[in-house]
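Input for the complex:
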Amino acid sequence: MLLSISSIFLGAALASFIARKFTKNVGILLAIIPLSSLGYFLSLYEKVRHGKVFTTFSPWVDALNINLSFYLDGLSMLFTLLILGIGVLVLVYSNGYMRHHDGKSKFYSYMMLFMGAMLGLVLAGNLITLYVFWELTGITSFLLIGLKHTQKAARAAALQALLVTELGGLALLTGFIIIGNISGSYEISELLTGHEALTNSPLYTPLLLLVLLGAFTKSAQFPFHFWLPSAMKAPTPVSAYLHSAAMVNAGIYLLARLNPVLGNTEMWQNVVTFFGGITMLAGAYLSLTQKDLKAILAYVTISALGILMMLIGIGTFLSVKAALLYLVVHALYKATLFMVAGTIDEKTGTRHIDQLGGLWSKMPVTMAISVLALLSMAGLPPMLGYISKEFIYEAGQQAPGVSGYVLVFSILANAFMVAVSILFGYKIFFKKKSWTKPIYEAGYTFWAGPALLAALSLILALFPQPLEPLLEASVGAVKATPIRVDLKLWHGFNVVFILSLVTVAIGISLFWSRKLALPLFEKLNKRLFYIDLAHVFNKTIDYLITIAKKNTSFFQHGYYRIYIMVIFIVASALVWYQLYSTWTWQFTADLSPVSYYALAIIIIICIAGIAVAVSRSRLAAIITIGVAGFGIALLYIIYGAIDLAITQIFVEVLTLVLFIMVFHKLPVFSKHLSRTSKARDAFIASTVGILMAALVIKADHLNLSYPVSNYIAQNSFKEGHGRNIVNVILVDFRAFDTLGEVLVISIASLGIFSLLKIKKSKTSH
Amino acid sequence: MNSIILKITARYLKPVSIIFSIYVLLRGHNSPGGGFIAGLLAGSGILFYNLTYGIDAIRNTYVKPQTYLILGLVIILSSATMGFLFLKPLLTGIWHTLDLGFLELNLGTPLLFDAGIYLLVIGSLLTITSSIMEEIEWK
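Predicted:
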């Protein structure tokens, strides 16, 4: 498994090379990589079907229970096959579609990266591993949506998608960490047995809400649905992949995966079902009033995601079965329709539904493919979509507690879908329209993929035997018990069948009355959706930036004096408060006797300190500071810290030199400080000074049961091979600290270097 | 700075301080010394020379201050990640004893780490001072 994921990432690295070398057939060549992975997973299919679970495991961060582990069961298998299968077809399609686009190599390499990230996500066996891949899908989709980075709209859409999904991502990480803390493990296989511990925990509510926030933002649930229609700024193959098999299904996968762990509670059912239902209805309704082909499909995707979410929320055997079947159905028809939309856009130059028409005779193959996919989308026989729609009704009918609104919502949503499907097909292919320019059928790379997918949704409906075991295995994985799945087109004249008839009737009548209904809906939209959520979101971001700017200009005003003053006041106030609240006077303990020469040095340092404060010239002040510094170095020597003393002397010398170097560049020594400001400075200085003294006294009385210095003194030679404890600490025991400091030093010096350089080049021009 | 005494002193002090700093660097593991102190020592020697001879002295050297910095960083990071070759965590010390017959040498990645710090300290010291010298056109 690890091999197939890494092979795809390798493909991403090779993509730009292949794109340069084989400009004509990049997509087809790259498609070989996921195709071979697909073959590998299909070879495991028989075993997974019979309930075998494949796992690989390698430790990553042992101390935190984070492992790089992968886990393949029925559910992962279902998603893997979708990701790889549709990925292959989309790559082949891109071969034709992207041929004349700029940034091809970038596109292919992002696409492969994205595929790898999705694959890793659905195969991850550890929550943290899953999270890493989760974020990776967010970042790669950001790159894909913003592929045409010269367009402002594409950049804005990419940023919006990134911000919304990453907001959820952070919430998700918090949720995962809480899960890990409660159950003591991040391994999914171990979590599956810890259902009770998690649901009975007092943290269950916040934990569930955090995880749901992650899943909802990723899967574009209401009220976070707005990023998905904007994301269609991406090239069409990206949309086809993003909407059908990938990114947006990540949230669905997550909830299906966590259903046995977190689900089956009242809260899960209510929240997930409700938001899913709202999303389903809103998406279906909004798709009806769109004019752009891709926008219509984007809202249909939102609706489909809502259906999936709702079914997973209900959480019965029937609903999980319906959800997973609908997942397949949706992936098949959505990828097809996006590719068809792309083809039409490519051949006619427009995606506006009112400007299209009469294409049935010009593009017969595309027409046939679309009709099949649209039938499946509308949930009409003899397509797979029909079976799944029947399942959805059946699940809604038997849903415990919520069946009322679930049924009404799904009938309405499906009726909208029927109307949209008819409208979509009619307007593009059958409405009368004469074209001024000649239009031809697209090449085979354009229609091969969609044709295969459309045919699959017909064949699998008529001969569902190959699909059944996969669904059985994946439903078994979600519900943690094995189950039989029977798919057939006709299952009797019952309530569900009548509901289907009602749905179709509403849908067709909506289509017939479109001249009347659509303007009405548009008016309603203006009333209902006068708050555009995407707009609200952008405004919030702008507002945040404004606040940040104000904040920065308040704190970073540029006066060094005031910075120092604020830092000292705040720090000393906080530390004083802490000392005050934990103070126990133990001053009775005798101070160790101080030798007379140490005392003499201390007196010299004190005199130097006073001299600095009262000195009238800068040079004198700098030199007296130097006296104090050397005095401290002498104290170090007396108490045996030779390393420190040498360092102190060097630093003292260098500071002196640096000071004198820039001496004549400094502003004139200000002598006209007012009496009050002098008093204020003296007060702050003495507060900080006394604080340090108090801290030292306090530190002397802290009774650590086992000082760490003993350990280091004993082990310095044994483990660090060095007799100089200070050095061994620096380069061995606490080398990580040193590494960090060293990085800070180098960044600081490069910063100074570039600051002065920039200033130089600015003044010279 | 046109002081003949300073110029002569600086010319001879620079190599001495560099050689002495290498000695300090190598003894650092067992006695006072080490990468930081040695870096300051060598850096001060070079700085002393630069201050006496002005910015032209820096412009004429082969090794630019930033080179020390980058070299130091590379050495530090490679010593930190060398443990990965032996499947050990980041920054684990790897030791190897070299038997030369007349003496035994204990070589380990901490020594490399220290050498990296040595170069980095020299590099950052010189980067900062030479930028300032360029800025104020120190002659």
